Amino acid sequence: MNTVIIKYNAGNIRSVLFALERLGVEAEVTDDPEKIRHASHVIFPGVGEASSAMRYLHEHGLAEVIRKLKQPVLGICLGMQLLCDSSEEGETACLGIFPQRVLKFRNEENKERRKIPQMGWNTIAGLKGPLFEGLDENEYVYFVHGYYAELSAYTTAQTNFILGYSAALQKDNFYAVQFHPEKSGAAGERILRNFLRI
Amino acid sequence: MLAKRIIPCLDVKDGKTVKGINFENITDVGDPVALAALYAAQGADELVFLDITATHEKRKTMTELVRRVAHQVNIPFTVGGGIGSEEDVAALLDNGADKISVNTAAFRDPGLIGKLARSFGSQCVVLAVDTKMENGEWYVYLNGGRQATNARTLDWVKQAVDLGAGEILLTSMNNDGTKNGFALGITRAVSEAVHVPVIASGGAGTVQHFIDAFKEGKADAALAASIFHYKEIPIPELKKQIRAAGIVVR
Known about the structure:
The structure holds 2 protein chains of 2 kinds.
Chain A: E1 3-6, H1 13-22, E2 27-30, H2 33-37, E3 41-44, H3 50-59, H4 62-67, E4 73-76, H5 78-82, E5 84-87, E6 92-93, E7 98-104, E8 118-124, E9 139-145, E10 147-149, E11 155-161, E12 163-171, E13 174-177, H6 185-197
Chain B: E1 5-13, E2 16-17, H1 32-42, E3 47-51, H2 58-72, E4 77-80, H3 86-94, E5 99-102, H4 104-108, H5 111-120, E6 125-134, E7 137-142, E8 147-152, H6 153-163, E9 167-172, H7 184-193, E10 198-201, H8 207-215, E11 221-224, H9 226-229, H10 235-244
Parallel strand pairs in B: 1-3, 1-11, 3-4, 4-5, 5-6, 6-9, 9-10, 10-11
Antiparallel strand pairs in B: 1-2, 6-7, 7-8
């Protein structure tokens, strides 16, 4: 098994590396297309802004590489959003694995005046697929985000914040989570371990 | 539903925890990493490390500590204390900190907040404010509470959030160390004035104080140090009682 973490202009990449180390898994942080293509598992993390991230991925030839991956891929946070068709953040065309749009949490829908971005621990429910094996419904995980993917046929976990949205998506070999498993305590470690077992 | 957060704070000097008594589960209570890992295992939602080192070696010891924490702790953590530049922040985030807090330097140069928000994102820029009530008005204090200003706390936090601060860590100097409860009035006023999360700090002594901070103070999170370090309220018991009061916690 060789796991790679895709290196690009987004923060928080090292947190994922450290989380894997805690699980006893060595991973390589790289932007080398050859290494990414030949990895057994690819993690696509990120905290940042969608349009500048997509620009970087195109400039470094990574957008096409990611689209064509056949091994298990895990998008985290911004990584998940970039796997969708497009994002309202900077009106950005994204990678198009999941045929859906990423939207901004809107104040007009925010009747209870929740603080945006969502920051903190929230529950995931309707859990489906190998990523969530062994996890209980309504497990708490850690979120930091101001944009979200709507519920769709590909939703494998949902969370409620202002409205119900996709906390996780899956299509073929592509898995994606809006929350940060690398910062979500024991539940997050279980999800990372499950991914590496796929 | 988004849970209210419980945040233990660790004061660190020269890479060692300043306060604290012995816990059965760890051998070195002075080691911030061991204490942090214990709190994480007990159900803390986040951690704050406040560096009170005054020497030139400060940045080096802190980045080394941050790296060790990031390797061993599986929940988010914030680092604060004397942070004054983009380079300081880059070094801490590169070594695995999730957020940083700025205080005096941001007040002296508010442009720093915008710079940090643009470079690293608002989500990792916490504005720490030490506040004190005098003649019925809450004012901002600097340098760890040693220096008064004429700035009203509500004005400063609103300005800071407009500039890009993503969270407010509000410490009441009137309440800090008293164990008589959080400063509910100013916490609520700040929470209602800004659209970012507010962490109540200073004065935690009982479980009811946390419940009050969430219900009356409208805080999104509550921070405490000594009640955890001296094992006065174990985190699992604290959360159980908060939950029983109808507040959502993890």
